[in-house]
Amino acid sequence: MWAAAAAWLRPKWHRLPTPSDHVAERGISTVIPSRNGRQLLETQFPTLLNQVTDVGGELIVVDNGSHDGTADWLAREYPEVRVVWSGMPLSFARAVNRGIAAARYSHVCLLNNDMVLEPGFFTALWRAFEEVPDLFCATAQIRFPAGVRREETGKAVMAQSSPDDFPVRCDEPLPGEDLTWVLYGSGGCSLYDAGKLRALGNLDEAYEPAYVEDMDIGWRAWQQGWPSVYVAGAVVEHRHRATTSRYYSETELQRVLEINYLRFLVRAVDSPPLFRRLWREAVERQARAGRGPTPREAAELVFEGGRLVEVRWNEEAFLAVTDGSVAVFPGNGSGVLLMTVERLAAPSPDLLRRYEAVVVARERMSQNVVDLAVRRWPRATLWTARRDEPARRLHTT
């Protein structure tokens, strides 16, 4: 009952994204928000600066209320770095948006100051935009230091192992998997089409102090038919929560995550039936766990409404390819094979030699996967098969 009431009561202010008329020079503007992160930047810069130069672009550090001498150190040691300064700490979205506003190039990379890049990071992300039509976001593979449990991978899907799990998780990538569609790119290590990013209004500053703003922007891009993909060859090591853990306890961060997830449902999910289902599941899960907002706080979130956009691509359609049941494997041949399997696994070397790409889908090959494959490989012949069965040509209109 409450979920139905919430769907009916939430204000919905629709608007169409307006593509920017600004013609940006082709290149990458890397934006790093940093709050008292001078030591982290000192670790990050040796693996970062040469790569920025190699791909052509600029580095922008948003000095976010620091008092550790970050700005003076940058001016002395790295005068080529552009600094956007804020005298007081801003939320992640507000800090990043200041950097995006200053960016001069066609693509914007959002990078946390606790990410250490492996060689080829920008090259791999850039290549994704050359291979995937209408791409909004290319997101990196995230690794963790030795001995630290891998909490993120970059392959973000909307799925749960149990009803008590948070509804979005990171799946472990399969060997050879690359450019698989994902729900969104991590705001800490992703490359975005700057024009599309600005058309969507950049990151939504309603998310305080951090979390879920990257899922929000990725979701709204999918609503326009602009996908996000996981890029295996762009690798970062994440010194996890090196900034947020200094200012918030784990309990506080979990509460922020849960409240911002509800805010995301109100502000970004367009379909009333989908909103009702996700809201009900979230509130019931939070109640079982004993965390999340009070009923009054939840009601305030509902009445807060959101900046929804007019949806051009059905939400259930993109959820069907970003729920952890689909994986993409580049090959060396011609044509694209859409293969239904009982469980996700890497295709045989023979198939990868035979086809340009193999798309595997667990249990069934939905029309949504077919439609997205047609858009992604418009000139390729599509084939379909079940594992260990002969492929047949797929006739599409």
Query: Structurally, how many domains make up the residues?
Result: 2
Number of strands: 16
What would you say the CATH architecture of the largest domain is?
Alpha-Beta Complex
Mean pLDDT: 90
Helix content percent band: 25-40%
Structural class: alpha/beta
Strand proportion, as a percent range, falls in: 15-25%
Number of helices: 14
Report how far apart the termini are. 42 Å
Instruction: Using the coordinates shown, work out and report the CATH topology of the largest domain.
Output: Spore Coat Polysaccharide Biosynthesis Protein SpsA, Chain A
Would you kindly provide a written description of the structure presented here, covering whatever features stand out?
With 397 residues, this protein is an alpha/beta fold. It has two domains: 25-247, Spore Coat Polysaccharide Biosynthesis Protein SpsA, Chain A, CATH 3.90.550.10; 325-393, no CATH class. It is built from 14 helices and 16 strands. It has helices at residues 2-9, 38-55, 70-77, 92-102, 121-131, 194-199, 213-223, 244-247, 250-268, 272-289, 295-304, 315-319, 349-354, 367-376; strands at 25-34, 57-64, 82-86, 105-111, 115-117, 137-143, 156-158, 168-170, 181-182, 189-193, 228-238, 326-330, 336-341, 357-362, 382-386, 392-393. Strands 1, 2, 3, 4, 5, 6, 9, 10 and 11 form a nine-stranded mixed β-sheet that branches. Strand 2, helix 3 and strand 3 (82-86) form a beta-alpha-beta unit. It is globular and about 65 Å long. The N and C termini lie far apart (42 Å).
